[in-house]
Every structure is written in C-alpha cells, then in structure tokens.
C-alpha cells in the first residue's frame, strides 16, 4: 500500500507544496494537513515544512507550536510512533514544541543565508536518514535567517554521545550553529529537524542535486520495515 | 484592571547579533563608548479584575510557556 505522508500548512508556510512534491517523487502519497484542524487524517508520517508560520511573530515557531494540529502531532511524535520531519521553520517548531532539544537563533552573520550547502550526514539509523551512508556528503539548499542552533553544553554532549546529530555543515557553519549542527533527532529516531531544505533537492531540473530525495525514500524504507502506527487512524 | 509587564532577555551566553548590529551603528553615529547592547522584548499584559496571587501565577505560566523560550531566554515579571 502506498504510504501516506502528511504535509502541514500553517499560515505563512512557504514550502508545503515543494514538500508534497518531494513526497510524491519519492513514491508516497502526499496528504495536505491544515494547522487549524486537530486531525492527522491517519497519515503514516508528517512533514512540517519551511516558511514563516504566523509571520515568525514572537519567535519562529512559537505560535505554530500551539496550533490545533500540534495537539495531535506532539503526543504521537513523542511516543516514537509517528515519524516527523521538520524542515527549517519546521525544525524551529519542533524545538519550540520540545520534541527536540535546543533552539534556533538568529544567524551570527546577521544575514539571511540562501545558498547550496554541503552537509555531512552522521546519524543514519533515523526514520528519515537510513538510506544514507554514515559520513556521506550531500548538497542541498540552505535558506534561513534564524538557523543558528544553540543548546546547553550538556545537551550538545548528550546529542553527540547518543549519535543524535543527523547532519553537520561541512566547513564552518555559515549561521554560527554550535558544533556545526544542521540537524538532530530525538531519542527514538522518528523525529528529525533539519535547517537546510532536502525537498528543494529532489529533481535535477530544479535543485542543485537530488541528494535530498534520500530523506523521503528513507522514510519509505522505514515504514516498509516495521509496522508503523498510523497516527490518528480511526 | 491590572497591568503586568514581562521583560524577556536572551540569556547572557546566547549571542545577540541584533545587539551587535546596534553597537556598530552607535559607533557610526558618534555615540562613543558604547561597548555592548543587548536587545530584549517587553510585553504589557493587561488583566481584567483584581490581580491576586493566582492571576499573577497565571501570567508567570504564560511567560514561561509562550512569551519566553526558557531554553534561550530569561524573563522577569513586575506589576505596574
């Protein structure tokens, strides 16, 4: 059966259509989810896309965290059952929701950064990265103004010790992220937050590479290998 | 009606690029001797009725759940 992957649209989401397209190209069925509905429509996984949810008012992701859809998503994700990929603003939402530790703050350079970025994939046992080789370098677009990852030193040590750093920037982190962190996962490996945009690198015509497709095909392998619990399936 | 002011500041160890940009502007404008600026947020929360301890505790909870992100920010409450 074709996997059904939800993509949440918040007011101010920009990359929901690209995320849905990436889901489709990977071979799954994208399902549109609306921030105002506390209904995951029984999807097998969810992508929180990039953009500026609620205009980034207060802090990036701070208001989206309390959207009705999140009341369904957060418990399902926290239990380890529901795979969730938060990209850029989605990563910020995951941190604000405390599904992932730490926070994303303004780029140390003070500039919005938009460029093709080389990353090194480190954790390859997560629901979203199992198709990559450990240490594999990929090129995907980075476009964010508040992408500098910060956390307490003890948290950073724990992430490194437990192999929960999903990706690091190759070379100096362009946004000042601590320990070069571009993406992390939770203790179950089902929730992944990533600052750069794999959904923009899934087709040669429109992206710098097709390196981002692996996040979406990894999910399909993950779903095929286990017996995923369809969130909210009634 | 009562008013509670909530001041939110980035924790001292968190880099504040906006503050640094302001320091840069100070120099260019001729305001000498400004060595550091930290930028924060001020919220004025108006509450209907009397502000008792329970209400104040509610505002404190509001501050720590929504107005501030305790991972990167500290906050202070005061009643005006």
TrEMBL record, chain A:
GO cellular component terms, semicolon-separated: cytoplasm
Location of the active site: 88 (nucleophile), 197, 199
Catalytically driven reaction(s): N(2)-formyl-N(1)-(5-phospho-beta-D-ribosyl)glycinamide + L-glutamine + ATP + H2O = 2-formamido-N(1)-(5-O-phospho-beta-D-ribosyl)acetamidine + L-glutamate + ADP + phosphate + H(+); L-glutamine + H2O = L-glutamate + NH4(+)
One Pfam family named in its UniProt record: GATase_5
GO terms assigned for molecular function: ATP binding; glutaminase activity; phosphoribosylformylglycinamidine synthase activity
Subcellular location: Cytoplasm
Pathway info: Purine metabolism; IMP biosynthesis via de novo pathway; 5-amino-1-(5-phospho-D-ribosyl)imidazole from N(2)-formyl-N(1)-(5-phospho-D-ribosyl)glycinamide: step 1/2
Protein name: Phosphoribosylformylglycinamidine synthase subunit PurQ
Gene: purQ
TrEMBL record, chain B:
Example GO BP: 'de novo' IMP biosynthetic process
EC number: 6.3.5.3
GO molecular function: ATP binding; phosphoribosylformylglycinamidine synthase activity
Primary localization: cytoplasm
Pathway assignment: Purine metabolism; IMP biosynthesis via de novo pathway; 5-amino-1-(5-phospho-D-ribosyl)imidazole from N(2)-formyl-N(1)-(5-phospho-D-ribosyl)glycinamide: step 1/2
One Pfam family here: PurS
HAMAP family documented for this protein: PurS
NCBIfam families per the UniProt record, alphabetical: phosphoribosylformylglycinamidine synthase subunit PurS (TIGR00302), PRK05974.1 (NF004630)
Name recorded for this polypeptide: Phosphoribosylformylglycinamidine synthase subunit PurS
